[in-house]
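User:
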Amino acid sequence: MRAAAPGCIRSALLWTAGLAALVLSVAVAVTIGPADISVPDVWSAVAAHLGRGEATLTPIRDGIVWNLRMPRTLLAAVCGAGLAVCGTVLQSLLRNPLADPFVLGVSSGASTGAVAIVVLGVGGGAVSISAGAFVGAVVSFALVLLLSHALGGSADRVVLSGVAAMQLFSALTSFVILTAGDAETTRGVLFWLLGSLSGVGWTDVWLCGAVLVLALVICLAHARTLDAFVFGQDAAATLGVHVTRTRLLLLCVTALLTAALVSSAGAIGFVGLVLPHAARALVGSGHARLLPVTALAGAVFLVWVDTLARTVLDPQEVPVGVVTSLIGVPAFVLVLYRTRKTT
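Assistant: Predicted structure:
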């Protein structure tokens, strides 16, 4: 029997360590806050709600664990994993190390959709902020596809179209906010635009989790294709890849995932930009190994970022996007410094 390759063993160890770190991070993060809750209390509450044990917590403490902190922490993990996966795919697909989930203009479109619901009252109260953000994200991405197709459809045209859409919808969002007469409404919208996981529920977790699983499965199925795209679209075509169809499929997948995440959590930057570079330093550029490791790293990272955001200035909460930027900028500079000899 042939011995396992060292790279496979290392990847398996990283996946195992990553899963263990994620489970432990979620369990510990749920305990952090004003209420005195321990890790055994978290396990007890989860087991009781899953029908694996009897409830041992008071209704109030059980509600804090199951209805407030657990869905928020799990959604942080889902958002971190999803944004990191999107960044990995886009950086390879577009051959741009600075590409991240928002390069397609999806975040700006989602922001405009959310602002239209809150400030302009679009939908007459029957449409939620998340639904408005999702519609805005889809409209923005459709515009990017039309522009890039009209300009030739190459990778650099997609990036340029995304930048154009980003500026357009950012301007629209700013204009709508300026027309708002209610200062409290404006403050709430701006807080959401900077990234916020407050007030999320299990519906958000299940929806975003389902989209993440679907996107990850599709991306893993195209892992070898993404490996080929790293060397350019001509090299990919030589290897038998249908470049246009594959790029469109993967762009749509990443846009759908980004739209779902942004509609629930707002705009959270730098996760999809920094984490793929850090993961490549650990497992290399092979996407069959890179995608799962990046997803786990992003999930653990955002769980702790959200924990820091909701506790560092307690009782006031800091937008998650502000914390990711404060951490992400120095981290990205470090990544660029360490990879300067290979770029």
